[in-house]
Amino acid sequence: MEHRLRIVRDDDASNPRTDCDNPSTLLCWSRHVEGDTRVNADNYETLEELRKQEIPRDAYVAPVYAYVHSGVALSLGAFGCQFDSGIAGLIYMTHADAKENFGEDHTEEQIHNCFTAELAEYEAWIGGDAWGFVLEKAKTCDSCGNTEYEEEDSCWGFLGDAKEAIRDHIPEEHTGLLEKAWDDRA
After folding, report:
1. Could you say which of 9, 28, 101, 172 has the lowest number of CB atoms within 10 Å?
2. What distance in Å separates the CA atoms of residue 37 and residue 52, rounded to the nearest whole number?
3. What is the DSSP letter of 96?
4. pTM metric for this prediction
């Protein structure tokens, strides 16, 4: 029986910051980046004062920069454009959360990589870079010969460059359909 695979934009994807468990906390004051916790940066004299009052002392902390121009890009490092970018918040992870997620001997590199991955996922969600797949089986009418497709499987909520994640969810006998479906995605 013939199958087809469609990759479809997921307009109702879950917010990875509010609907998922994250080892970090994203504290923001930018109107373009909601984060987990919002603060009014105007209530603090300095960024260090904000950090001392809002973030646990034992936390690993990194600044979050946003570049806002026809979309939102997030990074742990500053962008080169002084007009459309700037610091939008802070991302942090307590020592206890780092230990729980990476073990007693966790490294700052593991935490940095976690922050980077979480920001990439959140950026994809903000930008609507969310996908699902629909695997359909062809059914041909014996009397008229018309072919229609019936949904056999689907899964939603893949963020960013999700082709490999989708591949992991498709029955193995249909992974050959993925390249064309990914190129044709709507």
Report:
1. 172
2. 15
3. H
4. 0.86
Task: Round to whole Å and give the CA distance between 69 and 84.
Answer: 6
- For residue 107, what are its two tokens? 């490294």
- pLDDT tens-digit profile of 46-61? 999 999 999 999 999 9
Percentage helix, strand, coil for the chain under 3-state DSSP, each rounded to 5: 30, 30, 40
Q: Give residue 33's Cα distance to chain centre.
A: 13
CA 68 remoteness from chain centre? 17
Instruction: Give the strand pairing for 130-140 and 85-93.
Output: unpaired
> Measured between alpha carbons, how far is residue 51 from residues 62, 137, 185 in Å?
11, 55, 43
| Residues 9-25: tens digit of each pLDDT | 999 999 999 999 999 99
Cross-strand pairs, 151: 136
List, in sequence order, every beta strand (DSSP E) within 22-59.
Answer: 25-28, 37-38
